[in-house]
Amino acid sequence: MTLPALHNTGVLYRRILSQFPQDISLAFAYGSGVFKQHGTSQGQMEKNMLDFVFAVDDPVTWHTMNLLQNRKHYSILKLFGPTMISSIQNEHGAAVYYNTLVPVDGRIIKYGVISTESLIDDLMHWKTLYVAGRLHKPVKMLVQSENAKLRAALVANLKSTVTASFLMLPESFTEEDLFLQIAGLSYAGDFRMVIGEDKSKVANIVKDNFQHFRILYSNILRDCPQVVYKPQQGKLEVDKSPEGQFTQLMALPRTLQQRITKLVDPPGKNRDVEEILLQVAQDPDCGAVVQQGISSIVKSSSITQSIKGIATAGLWKTVSYSSKKLMKMWKGWRRKPSMSQMS
């Protein structure tokens, strides 16, 4: 199965990509500058920053080339050279190195660089859920290499998202319920949702991109033995028996299973994962335990990555970027739309 990608790589994106070293295994654009969000006009969209992620096989070589081509994109860390930049990228936060508030081709962009290996690890195991979480939602896929391991990991990430969401939803629910749950997964526990992000962000993402979510998930939902999917009615029914929930828990990414185990198993007991998940499967609060596990992954990676961002962006850019986020949060707070009002 191949990942359904939104392949509208318009001239703007191609022009921007052409200004970077071309050794990229995966590139995608995401966020409010790329996909319309409820309450945002086309004019506002065109003023919003464009967000990109580039996965590269060899970060040291890529940063060496990018420092030659785009030295001004980097903060003072450029003085330490590509090896140090790659080390900061790989060893701290969510293994992503961001350059932000970069003017390119008449637009302001932010781009994160991650090694292909770290990306596969996050997609398969939800180690940080930082880039994997962005790929739970529709993105504009701009470059996708023939790396079979990476392609399989992209699909595995979507399947894991569906499984985790099933555990947190009731027996019967709508596609809208599912997509809201999916869109909210990578924000659970993110401290930026307390300060710095528009609180209605999740509802806004789903409202105007419903069909994009359907394209992304319809094949996985049709093929999933755990669910009865009725696309014509937009309704789903999932197996909530202890056996069904145990099967779903056993299919979750490794890091999430470990976090759940840590939450449930008292210190010193050291039971095996299977035994603990069997206990969780029979717990009426199973969904809440899964939610807590996801929140703990997101919380730690969002804090450490944001601290790293101060160094990689530089102080002035950090203050400027944060003030824009706070302004969006304030506007969203004033609007306060609910999904029922927007339907």
Automatic annotation (TrEMBL):
Which named protein is this? Phosphatidate cytidylyltransferase, mitochondrial
So which cofactors does this thing need? Mg(2+)
InterPro entries for this protein = Tam41
Kindly state which reaction or reactions the protein catalyses.
a 1,2-diacyl-sn-glycero-3-phosphate + CTP + H(+) = a CDP-1,2-diacyl-sn-glycerol + diphosphate
GO cellular component terms, A-Z:
mitochondrial inner membrane
Q: In which pathway does it act?
A: Lipid metabolism; Phospholipid metabolism; CDP-diacylglycerol biosynthesis; CDP-diacylglycerol from sn-glycerol 3-phosphate: step 3/3
Summarizing the function annotation, the protein's role is: Catalyzes the conversion of phosphatidic acid (PA) to CDP-diacylglycerol (CDP-DAG), an essential intermediate in the synthesis of phosphatidylglycerol, cardiolipin and phosphatidylinositol.
Give one GO term, molecular function aspect: phosphatidate cytidylyltransferase activity
**Enzyme Commission number(s) from the entry:** 2.7.7.41
Q: Per its UniProt record, what Pfam families does this chain match?
A: Tam41_Mmp37 (PF09139)
> Broadest EC class?
transferase
